[in-house]
Amino acid sequence: MRGLLLPCLTLLPAWAAPALAQADAALLERRVKAAFLYKFAGYIAWPEGAFALAESAVVIGVLGDELLASELVQAVEGRSVEGRPLAVRRITDPAPSPGVHMLFVATAHNARLPALARAMRGQPVVLVSETEGALGQGSMINFVVSGGRVKFEIAPGTAERNGVKLSSRLLTVAQAVRSGNLQ
Amino acid sequence: MIPSQSPAPRDGAFMGVRHSVRKKLMLVVLATTFLALLLMGTVMMVYDLRTYHETWVGDMFAQADLIGRASAPALAFDDEKVARENLSLLQERPKVSAAAIYAADGKLFATYWRSDGSPPVFPAHPDHEGYRIESKELILFKRITGNDEFLGTVYFRTSYELLDRLLGYLAILAAVMATSLGAAMLVTSWLHRGVTEPILAMTGVARKVMSQRDFSLRVGKLTDDEIGYLVDTFNAMLEEIGRRTRALEESNRTLEQEMAVRRHAEKALLAADRQKDEFLATLAHELRNPLAPLLNALEILRMPAATESAGRAARDMMERQLRQLVQLVNDLLDVSRITTGKMALRKERCGLDGIVRIALESAQPLMDARRHSLEVVLPQAQVHLFADASRLAQVFVNLLNNAAKFTDPGGRISFVARRNADLLEVTVTDNGMGMAAGMLPLVFDMFAQADRSLERAEAGLGVGLSLARYLVEAHGGSIAAHSAGAGMGSRFTVQLPILPEADAGKPSPPQDRHAHTGRFRILLADDNVDFAASLSILLEAAGHEVAMAHDGVQALDAARGFRPDLCFLDIGLPRLHGYDLARKLRELAATKHACLVAISGWGQPEDKRRSREAGFDHHLAKPVDFEQIRQLLEQVQASRRAS
User: Closest partner residue to A173 among B79, B148, B149, by Cβ?
Assistant: First the structure.
């Protein structure tokens, strides 16, 4: 599976390199990932039944990463996706959380990923992880840090099994696209 | 200029006209073509350039939008590699020389430039969305949004070929214009042949017609259109003008001839008038001349102391003068008869000898008075003529008197008559004053006199020769005058037809006019008492019995008792006019068979017909002289005897 990963060829943005070089590179990483998270919402099509109302918010759940959650809260402030506001929900309970459209699973909780994936099978929830090999464990978007830059790989097949469609435009910027077959 | 086919102009004015028409024609064609092309070219060019501009800008914006949309995820997820790849798609659009994507914060995110170009200088910051045109290049900025969020800006730098296009268009327009104007020139040339040339030809002919006045010139017809019709009409007008001009000239000539004839007639009238004046003067003189001797003679006769011989001389003188007066009056009457056409000739067979004898007797006194020697030669054999003896004698007398008058005393005059085939030729020759050649044609004119200076007493009235010619011609003969010149004497020749000798054997009818005059009972009706009375005396002297009446009723009454053989009736009688009187006389038993003679102031055939219808046997036109009546009486006598 890992052999499918392509080396990262992208250049560092001018502002990224010194930032990441700092001690608070971890904070920056959290911030970038938070930004990516809400931006993903623009490239994901949830099924009709995923929202109660037309103006219901897109709920992004964050499991086990308070720093990212608070960054995300700041980032989504005042933003919307296709008319829907964005909401952040900090999740502590590893049980499936209804009403969440996207669930970020931090590396610390990656062990719970397969169980989560099973539990959420068939539900329109996009699982986002940041652990190498997570796509094989039921994750649909997995952050990768390559050459000091945050990238991601995606498994559109896995998302589709849950009735969620990842935009093909997302595929153009994904570091890798894999079939996302579960073990 | 298009080479001209028309004949070379002859003067400046004509050339001006020619240029004017041709120039205008060419100007119209060229200006129309030029304006149409210019207008159309400009409109098309503006339209095309605008379309080009809009299409190009729209196209580039669309392209930028596409690139922007494709690059939205790259911007969102900070993937400048993908953005660069997107930009590199522009290699398919070589007109795009450079392109770039700026991130939302205005930093340059990805760039592109054409592989064959050098790296361009990109703006440090993106502008607002829009475009501008800088030195043949279109520079545009297009904002990129995703999920209602400003993501960044696309920057394009492309070539903008409006000026090239404009130059290309101008070149095409120039080429088309040159071609079209060339074609217009050809059209003008063709029009020149079809339109201008016939007009020029017409102008030329019109000029020629005006300068040469030759209306037979025609313009050649080249076309069958309106201009051909114009040419035809022009030719027809020329013909009409020519015809009218000829008619006018003809009429002018006729007028001139008439004027000449009239001038001539006027001259002739003036001459005749002058001659008449001279004649009147002469007549007065001639009539007065005998009066003084007559008065003198009367004085002599009254003188108791006058001797017998003086009295006889006075009576002889009076007789001479009276004869002259009588001759004058007779001449006047003859002139009157000739001019009114009433000269009556009583022609009969007569011998030349008798005629010549009468003539010589009459002419002898003047010959003797002027002591001329007269030689007379007659043909040996008797010659007979069908003539009025007394009138023919008058001709010879006139010629002899003329010769005597115009020859100085003691001259030689000859009278030679000889036969020339069927003609009798009588020549009277003198050795007198003669005539200038110019005078010869005039001597026979009425009242003509060769020399006014001649002694009046001997000049006469100037009617003698005229009478002679009239009488000779009335006898079917001719008369001619000859003279070698003034002072060379004159010769007059008369030619008369001779009566054939076959008739010569017949005895002449008794000609003595006095011998057989019978006695008639004659009724004379005329309101002119003097005329009636004098005629009555003459008739009674001739042995007739005469009754007189002075109006119609009186005449009718007289006729009943008098039973006349002959009636002389005036037509204009009071109370009962001549025509009615004649009808009533024809109804009377006494005058049923009488000979009725009308005496009228009118002698036209119509008047004669009227009197014949009224029952008259004869018609005499006034003035009536006794000679006519005497001849009439002889005629009646002869017819009575015959019946």
Answer: B79
- Cα–Cα distances in Å, from B469 out to B334, B337, B493? 13, 14, 11
Contact B111, B84 (CB under 8 A): yes
Greatest Cα pair distance in chain A: 44
Chain B residues within an 8 Å CB radius of A76: none
What is the rounded CA–CA span in Å between residue B156 and residue B64? 7
The alpha-helical segments, DSSP class H, found in B406-551 are: 456-459, 464-474, 529-541
Give bridge partners of residue A104 from the DSSP assignment.
Answer: A62, A128
Mutation for B interface: A6, A8, A10, most B CBs within 10 A: A10
Q: Tell me how far the alpha carbon of residue A124 is from its chain's centroid.
A: 14
In order along its 183 residues, chain A shows pLDDT tens digits of 333 333 333 334 445 545 445 547 788 888 899 989 988 988 899 988 888 887 888 999 998 888 889 989 988 888 888 888 999 988 887 666 778 899 999 888 888 888 888 888 888 899 999 988 888 888 999 999 888 888 999 998 888 888 899 888 888 888 878 765 543
Find out whether A54 and A85 touch, Cβ atoms under 8 Å: no
Cis peptide leading into residue B605 (ω within 30°): no
> By the CB < 8 Å criterion, does A10 face chain B?
yes
- Contact criterion met (CB below 8 Å) for B122 and B102: no
Q: What is the DSSP letter of B119?
A: P
- The H or E element containing residue B517 is none
| Distance separating alpha carbons of residues B281 and B431, to the nearest angstrom | 29
Which residue among A81, A152, A170 places its CB closest to the CB of B147?
A81
Q: How far apart are CA A33 and CA A71, in angstroms?
A: 9
Contact criterion met (CB below 8 Å) for B154 and B123: no
Rounded CA separation B109/B83 (Å)? 8
The string of pLDDT tens digits covering residues B227-244 is: 888 888 888 998 999 899
Q: In what order do the strands lie in the sheet with B108-113?
A: B108-113, B96-103, B149-159, B137-146, B130-134
Q: How many CB atoms lie within 10 A of CB A7?
A: 7
For B562-580, letters b (16+ CB in 10 Å) and e give bebbbbbbbbebeebbbbe
The overall average pLDDT reported for chain B is 83
- Distance from the Cα of B98 to chain A's closest Cα (Å) equals 21
- What single-letter amino acid sits at A53? L
